[in-house]
Every structure is written in structure tokens, then in C-alpha cells.
């Protein structure tokens, strides 16, 4: 019982760490937008770029459009991943909105648009990547051009995203000048690379093997909570007999899977296998 309590405390600490990291990533993204890119009329692609265009043309605050345009994708992430992941996006999106509104009144940190584009793109990309890695801002909308949750969208989706980003950059060039559009492309590319760097090593999917003598309870809990199919790999699966279950999950669902398995059987073992066929054993006792 004492061991289980310690494990629950560790899981709570991990949850707090994730939320704080998501908030830190959102703050970094807001700094990149409001202190480097927006003051120079630099626009990146995706929802962030669309929000910036609306902010410039309507003279309303960027934070408002960031919140409104990203909000639908939180509800979409409920179907794409799970409710707990969607709830992690709320502090990230809220912090991004508030920080953007608070920083809007400050002048640009750099007066030259080229270094501003470079610094802003890096800050934005790293901030978004950090938030995504720890369960923050949902990337189904793909601010940087592709989905990080499924390993890349279908080709048709890639074409739509590419057309959307090109249209945003063309409109930005028309509004702010083609020299500014060139700087916007530089910021976009650096932001894209910043996201990729932050998500380096993050597999799109994980295979989990769960060994326990309460496999029926674990199977039911996983299917209800994660809406994933859970198969029997070894044994009969009856409670009281040591058996092994098999389940495919997203990398971001590992924490939730551990919590569910721990609640059902604190003496279980889980083996995760990434796309690179590396395995790591996690003892839950």
C-alpha cells in the first residue's frame, strides 16, 4: 500500500511537471510572436499565421484570434487522442493567449527584421514543440505543416496544408511587402525546424506489452479510458493467472496507460516498443 502511494505521488509530480513545461513552452512561443515576429509584420504558416493576419487586418489583439482559432482543435483532439490529452492543451492555450495579450504592448526586442525573423522563428518553433511533446497545444491543425501525433497526415491533407500556408504567406507579402514575406519564410522554416528539434525521438506510436495477473480488469479499463483495442498475447487472460496483453498507443498516452495499469495492478510490468524497435522495461512495483 505504501509503495502504491509513492507511485501515485510520483505520477502526480509527473503531471505537475508536464503542465509547467507546457506553460513554459507557451510562454516561449508568445515571446517569439509578440517580441520578434508581429512587430515586424512577420507571419508564419498555419493557425498562428492566420491569427496574425486577422490581427493585422482587424487591429484586434493576436491572443484573441490564437484562442478562437485553436479552440476547435482542442475538441478535435478529444477524438484523435483522448480527453486527458485534450485537457492538457487548456493551460497551454490559455497561457499562450494571456502571454500574447500581455506582451503586445512591449516594443520589438530587435529592430532589424532579419535577426528578428531568426530569433522569433526559433522561439516559436521550440515553444510549440515543447508544448506538443508534453501534451500541450494540439498539432492536428499542424501550425508547422504536418501532424506530429500520427506521424504525418495523408497526402491530401499535406496538399491542403501546403496550399493554406502558401496562401497565408502570399497574403502577408501583399499586405506587408515581398521583402517582409521573405523574412516570414525564413521565420517559418526556422520555426518548423524548431518543432522538429523539440520532438526529436518522439515516436508516433508505441506498442505496449502488459504482464499481470489481473489482465481482464486492465483490458476493460484500457478499452474504456483510451478507446483502444487491447489483445491477449499470452495466457488465458483470466484474473489470477499471469497473462500478457498487447496494445498500440500514442507516445503521449504512456503516462495515462501507466496510471490505469497501476490502479488495476501495482505489481504489473509493461514493455514499450518504439518505432525504432527499442524496448524499455518499466517495473511498476
Automatic annotation (TrEMBL):
UniProt keyword Transmembrane helix present: yes
A Pfam family annotated for this UniProt entry: YitT_membrane
Membrane topology: Multi-pass membrane protein
Record's keyword terms, sorted: Cell membrane, Membrane, Transmembrane, Transmembrane helix
GO cellular component: plasma membrane
Protein name per its UniProtKB record: DUF2179 domain-containing protein
Listed InterPro entries: UPF0750_membrane, YitT
Organism field: Paenibacillus etheri
Subcellular location: Cell membrane
Transmembrane segments: 16-38, 50-73, 85-104, 116-136, 157-176
